[in-house]
Amino acid sequence: MTTTIDHTFVDAVRSRERISGLSHNFYRYPARFSPLFARAAIAAFTNHGDVVLDPFMGGGTTLVEARAAGRLAVGTDINSLAVFVSTVKTTPLSHQDINEVGEWVTTLSTDLNLHRPVDRDTTWIDQGYQKNINTRKTWPIRKLLEMSLPNLQLLRTEGQRRFARCVLLRTAQWALDCRKDIPSAAKFRDQLLVSLDEMKEGAREYAAAVGTSARGTAALCLHRSAAEIHLDRDVNGMAAPKLIVTSPPYPGVHVLYHRWQVQGRRETPAPYWIANSLDGDGASFYTFGDRKQPNLMTYYDAAFAAFSSIAHIARPETTVVQMIAFSDSSWQLPEYLATMQRAGFREILFRDLSDSKDGRLWRAIPNRKFYADQKGETASSKEVVLFHRPA
User: Fold this and answer.
1) Rounded to the nearest 5 degrees, what angle is found at the Cα of 65, between the Cα atoms of 60 and 103?
2) pTM summary value
């Protein structure tokens, strides 16, 4: 292959720096990878104006970095919450937009009062989107959100409303997700202003970065599967991707993409209510199948369907860079590589940059917890970076 990578790329892969900068911290999407990894891949394999695709875009990290670097960006995801988050993160706002949302949030934070009556939205309630946030400790947060969401209509534009909705989403995630001790209403109001300030800074930084690029504004965020992406009119209207950088679902590993966990492991679909995005699917829908299925055949069938479709829109010079983990890499990695080959891709190895016997780039993640088939909770895991080109 003509493009080479060096130890700068390796350092980016193995970096343990906290995720920061641009709009990356608008929402903490599960299993997101470092912006440094996406940035390094984009720098190594693309030029200004090239198309970068992420077929499992999640929280939009790849798309944010691609747009900031002056590339065209397109992403797909079957999760409507991912589409909402990625759209907000990749839509540049003007200074006026940011200031108007700032005034709206500031006014809102002073008006939120638990003693005031609120009109409850029975449509969302009846569909179960407030499950497990009506307890004695969580109901104040739920009520503050119920008071806040109708006020979004006071903002002028859809871009402003999406950004403000994301401020509420981020603050609610801080208050509820993986929390045993739920903060008070007063602390929620204070955190709302903290979220606002941090997101305003990120929005200004992202808008400035995108403003220096030559083409377009927002990324193209599609709510769809990567399977049959070659038939999508929006995708066909763009040039072939020069780079595909992504993190697909992990074989045999359970990641909770579609729920928050409240006060232990009580799951709630509340983020969809806040984001105004419908969801009706179970965990296996977002992870290519049940992680306990023997041989994970459903998983590999779904991966084949996605990448064989991606092969149709790729060109000989297209590079696929993936970061992926396995519950048992001894057999799952060979099966995954065989699936990629059947889909039309050949693996590329950079043995001179690897310190592992298999010639690949691995990274340890000491603080991330996954749930892997029947082995229980894993305190640490490893991810590997895979490089492919069309066969």
Assistant:
1) 70
2) 0.93
What does the DSSP 8-state code read for residue 153? G
- Cβ neighbours of 214 (radius 10 Å): 7
Give CA–CA dist 116/242, Å, rounded: 54
Percent of the chain with pLDDT over 90: 75
Degrees, nearest 5: CA angle 367-87-275: 75
Residue 203 CA to residue 160 CA, distance in Å, equals 12
CA 345/CA 314 separation, integer angstroms: 10
Would you tell me how many other CB atoms lie within 10 Å of the CB of residue 333?
18
The third-level CATH classification (topology) of the domain covering 7-91+219-252+288-390 is: Rossmann fold (3.40.50)
Asked if 239 and 53 count as a contact pair (C-beta separation under 8 A), the reply is: no
Quick: pLDDT tens for 131-177: 999 999 999 999 999 999 999 999 999 999 999 999 999 999 999 99
Phi, psi of 134 (to 5 degrees): -115, 20
Alpha-carbon span 192 to 256, nearest angstrom = 25
* Sheet of strand 370-372, all strands in order from the earlier edge strand to the far edge: 253-254, 370-372, 376-378
Where do the structural domains in the chain lie, given as residue ranges?
A: 7-91+219-252+288-390, 95-211
Q: How far is CA 342 from the centre of its chain?
A: 27
